[in-house]
Automatic annotation (TrEMBL):
Its main location: cytoplasm. This is Importin N-terminal domain-containing protein. GO terms for molecular function: small GTPase binding. Residues 31-115 form the Importin N-terminal domain. PROSITE patterns: IMPORTIN_B_NT. SUPFAM superfamilies: ARM repeat. Keywords: Cytoplasm, Nucleus, Protein transport, Repeat, Transport. Residues 814-835 are annotated as: Disordered. GO terms for biological process: protein import into nucleus. Residues 816-835 have a biased composition (Acidic residues). It comes from Chondrus crispus. GO terms for cellular component: cytoplasm; nucleus. It comes from the Eukaryota.
Amino acid sequence: MPAVALSPAAQQMHNILERLQSPDNTSRGIAENEYNQAVEQKGLCLDALSTLAASVGVNEVVRATAAVLLRRSASDMWGGADELTRNNVKTRLLLGIRADGRKDLRKKLCDTIAEIGAPLVDREPSQWPELLPTLFELSRSSIAYERESALYVFSQLADVLDQKVFAPHLATLKSAFQTGLADADPGVQMAGLRATCSQLSLLESYLCNEFVDLVPLMIRPVQQAVAAGNDDDARQAIELLIDVVESEPKFWRKDLAAVCTLMLNIASNNDLSDESSPRQMALEFLVSVAEKLPSQCRKMGTFVRNVFPVSLQMMLSREDDQEWYKQEIDEDTSEYTLFDCGQESLDRIAIALGGKAVLPIAEAIIPSFLNNESSWAHRHAALLAISQIGEGCQKQIEAKLGDVIDLALARFRDPHPRVRWAAINCIGQMCTDFGPRIQTDFHQKIVSHLILVMDDAGNPRVQSHAAAAVINFCDEATPDIIAPYLDALLGKLQALLHSPHRITQEQAVTAIAAVADSAEEQFVKYYDWFMPRLKQVLASAAGNKELRKLRGKVMECISLVGLSVGPAKFGPDAAEVMNMLVRTAATQSEDPEDPQAFYLMQAYARICRCLKGAFIQYLPHVMPGLLQAAQQKPDIQVRDIKEDEEPPEDPADGYETVQLGDKRLSIRTSVLEDKAVACTMLACFIAELGGGFYDYVEPVTELMVPLLKFFYHDECRTAAANALPDLIKCVMESGKDPTGAQVVRMAQYMTIPLIDAIKGEPDVEVLVHMVQALGRIAELVVAPGLSPDLMVPAAQALSTVLLESEARNIEREQLAEQEEWDEEAQEDAEGDEQKEEELLEKAATTTGALLKNHSKSGFVQAFRMPNKLGEGTDAVSTMQMFWVRMHASRQAYERYAALCAFDDLIMYGGAEGVSVISDTLPAMKAYCTDQDADVRQAAAFGVGICAQVGGEAFMSSAGSAVVHDLEKVIRDPNARSEVAVQASDNAVSALLKIMEYQPACLGDNAMSYGRLILEYLPAEADTAEAKLMHATLVRFVQAGDTRILGENAANMPRILFVLLSVLGTELLEESATRPAVDVIKGLESKYPVEVLQGAIALLPDELKQKMQMVLAA
């Protein structure tokens, strides 16, 4: 019985909660039913639970249970209680955290206060106006646990509320946090730090600046916890500081040096040698700072010099564990150690700070480690350090790549097996980081060393790792590079297949696959030896759980071999292999960790690419499993981190865990990976099989469209976007939709969700695929296939893409200015800019497809129509979003995309397209001589289109001046260079169009321009424009136009040369072939014999023969 007087409802609830703890299932089940009935009386239940949770005399277990249940269900019951009950609950809870010093119960009450209070104080006006004042009062209490409780509630509220709730109280909050951080009680200090960090993660940057002077106090809990030997508190405190580094890195700028010094002292403190010590967390803080404030870390000068040796020193903690030699897997699945922390930090620091900052320090430290003959751990750490920094220091290491390779290869003969393993690992990683140059320049020494070390039969881990390095090497090795080593390399790998160690067999199989993939058709010579043995392993290992991974790798190997040698060689074995794969799929276990599923799907895709149409017969066996894998629901578990529950599954068990506010979200990543692979394989089947995939179009379409918003995995959304236009193409190629009705239905079904997905896609790389998919659909399904109702949403989606891209670019520029980016920071940002460039190019291409095929459905009007894209934004049109990118201050890729969009608008937009010529043609004229070749190409093309359709607007907007600009491009000495030739082709094409449609612009120089055109032709780079130019030339010659023929047909030799050069090639339209032949044959009757014979005499021999064939035809 409780030691306090309770109301009847509270007494009844007390009895229920007591019985909920019963070990007897029947008794507990009855109590659960009674509790569920009690919850229906919301007011009484709310009152009873709050009474029990806040009453000191109640049994602790009952109190804790009441607090947890109250927090969980308060939001559902609150509206069903009267005002008096709600006020009583609030009063009890605030009194409860004052009445009891026991931390676990107080914490639960604090969590309940935050859960109930957050939505109440978030309203206008506040529904719990006394909450914040009471918390401020408690933060000044003389009782330590009351101060701690107040600060803890502040931290919990900050996790779920908007900053507008706290903004009016910032000064008071800061004072409370400052007092808490300076408190003598460690618990209050930690609560103060938690509250401060939660608030900083919530507030915008300009408000965070108000708290900068608290930094010295914020690091005190770390210092005191370390001094007291309290590792748990030290780790938690540093983790809170890391959260602020992640959310508000600039907050640390003023005191960065002092905080980094503290963390360095902790990370390098060998007295804290336990793996659970705060050393790892301190190094994580330093690495996070490097990633978030790279410019400032580089400017500190001493950052890398201090952190790099600490990371290396941690890597010396690895012991020569004998279990390592016996492992049959190459992955280390043990706990995250000091060694792992040090190794990972080198990679991240190098990537964050770049080679200019990191490599000089590495060169000063690593040699002494590498030459330490008395310590294998030093040599081991040095080699792994080289492999870790390779990606981040790529440009700097490139200059001395040969020397670095020699350092690693020298250790292939090290007396210690683990050092040899590290040397092999270093070479393998460098093959990835520095390919394809390393394969091109250093193949002989690398492959010969790998072949030798594969003889290390006494150390299977070393032997298998050599095979793994072969895989890395082959990734970027061309057939010519790998060819001289095939006999020796495959001979060694063949021997490894007979190893008694599974790890060696698995890596050998994968290496054979990699060699085959690299060798391509040259592997045919070895096919008859390997394929029977691979099939034998596939058959004999079936059903053996321990050999599932080996079977998976054999599937990978067989499929890659088949793809390399082609269907003619692989075809006779394909049926047997597919039958074994299908049987494997049919008998596969339900174990989600069975690796065969992944390998099966990959193998199916490769065999499909090899067999093409011959693979269609296997679809009935393959598709059910593939669809099932693609339809998997994400395995997501949400836990309340405020409750004392078991920790979530370890990430090594296939889960990835993140914290969101007061929730812990665990996602089974292995399921997501399988789903992503399945979706990618389906996209591959659709693209490869075309019409042969028709029977599965409907279910796959229904699967893929919702995946456009599957935000758990980027590859699922990418595969869905890629698949949609190919599904339409599949129906078109099948011949089973003669009226086109199915294509129209499909296009309508998928385009609306695709447009919606484009507007909300957060990842730029995925967005590129989505925008491209919209463009491909617009290209495939011509008007009126796409409904006019889709035109405005499509234009809005493109405007959203352009607007958000602009915002990201501006944000990047502002960040560069605020953080004073150095050269390395600017280089790091180039990757983001390249993504934006690709996105803008796809947006322009998609715009062109919509203008070309859907102008009559209203896209031109939609393109020009201003739309509000969000609250607080002005109405803007897609055309305006492109127009601003035409300005001379913009990057070349922006101007190019804008020019392409306006080229298409003018070409396909009818009268509305022509109406923009007066505004756009001056820019096109200016950009004809731009330094960027792509910009010149788009501008010259646009000039030609304007000449063709512009009428009088062309003369008034550009006139003869543009002709001089085109001439300058054509006469440039580098006009035919690989970079410039596309632009030059389009300049010639534009000049031809001016000659045809705007002859007045040529003035008295028409004949000299005709000669200039002929001197340039034949055009070969831009095939589409070349066809048009050569057809135009034929028309001019047919008409006897003297501007082309010249006086007295003086240009006849060159005309003959051009026409004969393109006749019978892809550079002349079919429709122009007959007229071209007629022109050539008609020369005999039109011109004197001596003129014609003189022209023929100047032709090269092959064209003379062609001339004779034409005349004789």
